[in-house]
Design brief:
The complex is a heterodimer of chains A (414) and B (239).
Chain A lengths: L3 H9 L31 E2 L5 E2 L1 E5 L26 H13 L5 E5 L6 H17 L6 E5 L6 H8 L4 E3 L7 H7 L5 H20 L11 E7 L6 H13 L5 E6 L16 H16 L4 H4 L12 H7 L7 E2 L5 H4 L7 H11 L6 H6 L4 H4 L3 E2 L9 H19 L6 H7 L4
Parallel strand pairs in A: 3-4, 4-5, 5-6, 6-7, 7-8, 9-10
Antiparallel strand pairs in A: 1-2
Helix pairs in contact in A: 2-3, 3-4, 7-8
Chain B lengths: L1 E3 L4 H10 L7 E3 L11 E3 L4 H14 L3 H10 L5 H15 L10 H23 L3 E2 L5 E5 L10 H7 L5 E5 L4 E5 L4 E5 L11 H15 L7 H7 L13
Parallel strand pairs in B: 1-2, 1-3, 5-6
Antiparallel strand pairs in B: 4-5, 6-7, 7-8
The chains are: A alpha/beta (414), B alpha/beta (239).
Bound molecules: iron/sulfur cluster (SF4) (2 copies).
Amino acid sequence: MIDEARLKILVESAKFDVSCSSSGSGRRNEGGVGNGYASGCCHSFTPDGRCISLLKMLLSNDCIFACKYCMNRCDADMPRASATPDEVCSLVMDFYKRNYIEGLFLSSAVHVSPDYTMEQLYLTVKKLRTEYNFHGYIHVKGIPHADAEIVRKTALYADRMSYNIELPSERSLKLLAPQKSRESLLLPMARLQRERLEFKEEKRKGYFLPAGQTTQMIVGASPEKDGAILRLSQGLYRKNGLKRVYYSAYVPVVHDSLLPELPGGALREHRLYQADWLLRFYGFDAEELLPEDGNLSLEFDPKCAWALAHMELFPVEVNRAPLEVLLRVPGIGARSAQRILDARRFTKLTFEHLKKMRVVLKRARHFITASGKFYGANERAVRGLLAAEESKSNAVQMSLFPNETALSALTGEL
Amino acid sequence: MIYFYDGTKEAFLTALLLSYDDPLPVLTSGNCQLALGQRTVFVRADAEKAQKAERRLLSIDKDCMRDLDLLLRSGDADKDTVALGYFRMIAKRQRPVREMLGEDDVLSAENHIRRVTFEIHRMKGFLRFMECASGALYAPIVPDNDICDLLVPHFRSRLPMYFFVIHDVKRKKAAVYDGEHTFFAPLGEAEVVLSADEAAWQRLWKEYYASVNIPSRERLKQMRGYMPVRYWKFMPEKH
Ligand code: SF4
Ligand code: SF4
């Protein structure tokens, strides 16, 4: 059993990685312990409002790299620790069977060398699958510059892998993470994606990253604008087949003259997640939302901002508007839109109906009519009303993390 | 009129037939404040009638018995009357009504069902097993709704080799899986002898919970929203 002191070090160094999702894998139990639960499952929530789904830890925090923003950089004065593959495996098994966790998110600092580190990660997940017979969820971090063959073998045992892009441009990467390069992050991603497709096509036995790949970007440590960031994300979704891009508002944990001293802005992070949601589920293009060198409005959520710029398209009649149009109404989310489609097959919907169906009308009422009736304010007043609404809701419930329940609860009805 | 019944499916279906022409029936299986002069009926299950009603309903909507099962598990006091309203509507309209969200009866039923299924989903995450000296796993729970048996398939498929017990402490019943079969039994108090390592694993879990938190970003309200306090009772990390 691993001791509490080392567990603490290895977890504290891993906790800023925001990915927590355990969804998207249908891995089956094959006579051992565990399976994948396709919709994901939260096992606990910490006082910072984030969910716990996976046991998130590093195999080692003893790094030879020196990324300026990271508290594990080699020249930082930090307590160092490593865990053995067996220690990690038994921790996973005992936590899993008590239903503390859905699986493992294993990452590592670059310990000794990239190849050595990747090898250790590989050995751990292989052991967990083959010796400990674990079929629950496993997410493994890819190590930049590590040998492609070890990475490929790891993918045969993991449900998901991620290379973190870290910074949105090569220039910033050079400046702040000098040992990483854009190629060392993007190439392995592209390779894994290719191998994953081949694996599928050839209908081979077993699994190869059934839950795909994700990545993470630190926002606010470098000067890139939201417009550039979202175009990058859009490309990753559409060209590289990524499942998820996470954004992490920069938290200054170390001091360096190259880094801003102020935190990167939780509200900005929140807006990026909202816009990301629009790209993936609401049929928006990054180009519609903002110019390359622009930032998202902090005042309005991105859908609201878009609608306000296109007032000539509104109001739309809820009894007639097609799904794509309903989805563009501020305040009407995917679930509400679907419910409206269902219900209007049977009756002509009025505002009363919408209210009872728990469609949130605070924002939507300015953009729709129901059976010809309009309850919104006139165009000039709308901006002010919406802005007041926004600042109120941001104050009470800003979601800082890409916790999926949080996102669907808070921004699901964007 | 107020109809009392025992909460079972058969008695419910019998009550549905019996009250069909009553314009404003109230159905209950629990305690109910009686207003002065209110008339009451005690409904006894009639297996034959119930079966006939079930067949008729299934021919109209093949999924409706699943709805009924979930509705009757609800912990809400008005669940019986809500279920009655929903099934009267199916009978009157002679078609599935699930998507008629403009109707109050459908909306309330949908609401109750959603709360039950949501709690099942939550419990799959929040339930905590303890390891007993025998190697068996034991999880006490206090759900709002009567769902303990519905949790078994989920855990059986991921822990097929374990003997486990899920104990609804409030309703005094348990679902037991013995590595092969599942059965249900009334269970008041369970005597549990924990394994030698159990306390140490719980301590490690608590250490994990404390370490993964980011104290400078405290958002207690959000935490309580996702994980309401009533579920904390058997979670080691909350003690
Ligand atoms: S919020 Fe989502 S990602 Fe996080 S634990 Fe819950 S289901 Fe998983
Ligand atoms: S590689 Fe960079 S980001 Fe990763 S642990 Fe080392 S210093 Fe930190």
